[in-house]
Amino acid sequence: MEKPITNIISKIIKEGKAKAEAAAAVAQIAQKATTEEAPRSIPLPSQQTLTLIPYTIVKSLAMLDNIYETRLFGWVLAKAQSVLKLYNKDLSTINIEHAMNLTRVTIPARLLLGDGDKNYSQVTKAFSLAEKRIEFTKDNTLYHLNIIAFPELRKDGRKSIVTFVIHQQLWHALLDFSKGYRLFNLQVFMTLQSKYSIIMYLLITQQSQAKNYGIDALRQLLGCDGQKAYERGANFFARVLDPARAELKSKAPWYFEYSAAKEGRQHRYTSVIVTPVLNDKFVLEPNEAAKKATELRARIDEEVSRYVIEKFGLDGKALETIEPYLMRIGGKDQQLTRLDEIRLKTASSRVKNPAGYLVRALQNASK
């Protein structure tokens, strides 16, 4: 039987986990990502598959050890950012439930498997994410949180379901782009087998031209610094960069070429020039509908957007519906005041559908 979320909450509280405060989905960043930050010499992939990954989370990719961890991480990102409507695919089979300082996620196990793969026992390889932690700072507080907690693989009739819990602060960190972000193709991301391919993919998608990396800095970005096997430049190229380049060339809309430079009397490799290359195998088509949706997100203040999502449970489509009515109320402070009034009415009247009530109330107020 599925464990109630309240039981999991109690377990977390007993272990002394801190209570999380709500954070916002920064929709303005999504607009900026599709307009200002796009590499000029490399076309963006289809907007239907674009997702953002905050810089605070990028470094955690070096911890991913297998394709199942990568897929689970990717689906969590897509669901957390679904309100931004960058990934225009059906995510309705991934369910989330927020309670206190936790977000519980339920996902079909088949989403963690490749095409034609029915070996569900492999899904549990993603559960090693529970042993890995992400460190980030927010509001002068340092957080050191497990990526997931309490993962389970269970049967629900004829279906296999994966459930796990994410700390609320980490869930909101997936939406915090204030320190920068990477824009990437989620479908490609979840087909890559090597963490080195994943990180190189994120690096080159943000480059408009060749970039020079210090070899030690590149090792650190790839999470292989300190590994004796990769201390020699030749080994690093043969075991890390060459396989990553080959995998990207076979699976991604772009891959990379590189050249290395030597310096000093011992002729040691000191730097690597990485050049992104458009892959002619892939057709890249922009999606104007998704771009329009992100532009709409940007017109709603982030605090207002957070309020209606968390207090009324609205999704991206509903935000589009109420946006013109919110604009007629006035600025952010007037909008929040009106929203709070409506929320209090829903609570006192025990409204069964707060989201629908909000839409009707705003529509009636503008008549």
Comma- or semicolon-separated keywords:
alpha+beta; four-stranded antiparallel beta sheet; Arc Repressor Mutant, subunit A; globular; 21% strand
What does this protein structure show overall?
The chain is of the alpha+beta class and 367 residues long. The chain has three domains: 5-189, Arc Repressor Mutant, subunit A (Orthogonal Bundle), CATH 1.10.10; 195-278, Arc Repressor Mutant, subunit A (Orthogonal Bundle); 300-365, no CATH class. The chain contains 14 helices and eleven strands. Helix 2 (27-35) crosses helix 10 (288-299) and helix 11 (302-312) runs parallel beside helix 13. Mean pLDDT is 75; it is low at 11-48 and 284-294.
**What would the average pLDDT be, to the nearest integer?**
75
In CATH, the topology of the largest domain is named: Arc Repressor Mutant, subunit A
Main beta-sheet annotation? 4 strands, antiparallel
* Strand elements, count: 11
pLDDT < 50 stretches: 11-48, 284-294
